[in-house]
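Team,

Forwarding the record for the chain on the shared tracking sheet. I've put the sequence and predicted structure together so nobody has to dig through attachments.
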Amino acid sequence: MLKCCICGRKIGVFGEDRYKITEEYITCYQCTSFIRGMKEAKNVDQIIKNENGLKEKMREYRVPLEVQNAIENELQKIKDLKQEIYNKEKIQVLRYEEIKEKRKNFLVNTGYNFEGYKITKYLDLVHGEIVLGTGFYSELSASISDIFGISSKAFEGKISQAKRLAQEQMIVNALAITANAIIGIDFDITTFSNNMIGVSVNGTAVVVEEIG
C-alpha cells in the first residue's frame, strides 16, 4: 500500500487524487490539494497561501530532509511555470493598452487618401472577418415581421454590428504591422442558410504623417 510522503496517510490504489513528486515520493489527496491549488492559482497570493499550507504540513509531520528537497524542487518548478504565465498575461495586458491608445488616432477610409495627411509607407493588405447569428427562428416569422418593418431594422442592426466588429479586427491586424491608417476599405456580406451572416472587410494598411 502506498503512503503519502508528507503525512504518511495510506493512498488508495484507485480513484484517489494523488500527485507524483518523483517515482518514489507521492502525496495523498489532502496534501495534493495544496499542490493543485498552486498549479490552478489565479494570482500570487493564492500560490503563497497553498505553498505555506503545504510547508506547514511538512513541519507538522517532520518530513525528512530528502523528501523536503524533492518537494521544494517540484514547488519551484510550479512557481517558475506560473511566473512565466503571469509574465505573458502581463505582456498581453500591456499590449492591449498600447493598442487601445493607438486605436484612438487610427485613420480609416474607403478612399485612398486623407485630407491633411500624406502616405509615407504602404505596408500590406489586412482583413477582418465576423460571423453573427441573425436571431430569426424562421423565414416565415421574418417575412411576417417585414410587414411592420421590424425584421428589416433588426437585420440592419446585426449587419452594422458585424461590420463594426470586423473593422475593429482588421484595425488590430493593421496595428500589429505598425500601420496607423487603412485605405481602400471594402466590405463583403455573406448570408448562410442557418440564420447566420458573415461580414468580411479588407483594406491596405499604410503609415501616414500629418502635412505641415
